Each structure stands twice: as structure tokens, then as C-alpha cells.
Amino acid sequence: MQDFTNLQVWKKAHDFTVNIYQATQNFPSEEKFGLTSQIRRASISIESNLAEGCGRNNDKEFARFVGIAQGSAFEVRCQLILARDLGYISNNQFDFFEQKILEINRMLNALEQKLRAKS
To answer: How many angstroms separate the CA atoms of 100 and 88, rounded?
Structure first.
């Protein structure tokens, strides 16, 4: 077991989630239970699965949770594309978020490979 707050990818995922919360405050009120909720939950899922994986007994289990976090990162990217296309975020905001989520996904992929090589 390790402290998830020491993981660089967790720190980036946490900052990303905070930014998502700030950006979605401006989404239309009718999206409160739709896209706003979905994108927030998916971004939280990235960091939450890293935290849960750190609490598991071995690297194989941790790797499984990292894989789930990767899936959530792809989900967020899809939702960001939709938010951009609906005009809820600007192209500049989308570019910022896409750069961040792609970086997080690369880090998750590297972490999962490292964990699977050890198990």
C-alpha cells in the first residue's frame, strides 16, 4: 500500500477535476443532472480509482484500478468534445482540457504497464 497523494498522476487528475468543476459551473442549468453531472463524476472517477487502487494488496489489483481510471479519462475526453460542440466550453478551454486529459492518460498507461510488469 502507498499514499495515493504522492502519485504525480493523482495530483494531475485532482487538479484536472478541480478545473472541471470550475468550468462546469457555467454550463446551462438544464444540464445539472446531465452533462454537468456526467463529466464531474467521470473526472472524479480518475483520481478515486487511483486512490482505491493504492489501497489494494498487490500490483495486479492496483493495475486493474489504473485501467478503470483510464476508461474514465476516455469518458471525460468524449464529454469534453460534446461540451465544446454544444458551445458550453470554448475551443481554448477544450484545447486546455484535452492537453491535460491526454497527459493524464499517458501517465496512467505508463503506470499500468509498470505495475503489470512487476506482477
So the answer is: 18
Q: Which three cell numbers stand for residue 44?
A: 472524479
CA distance 46 to 49: 6
- Give, as one character, the DSSP assignment of residue 32: T
CATH number at residue 71: 1.20.1440.60
Q: Which three cell numbers mark 92?
A: 481554448
> Helical H runs in the chain?
8-24, 35-54, 59-85, 91-118
Look up the pTM and report it. Answer: 0.94
Count of structural domains, the chain: 1
pLDDT of 62 higher than 90: yes
Q: Dump pLDDT digits (tens) for 22-46.
A: 999 999 999 999 999 999 999 999 9
> Three cell numbers at 89?
466550453
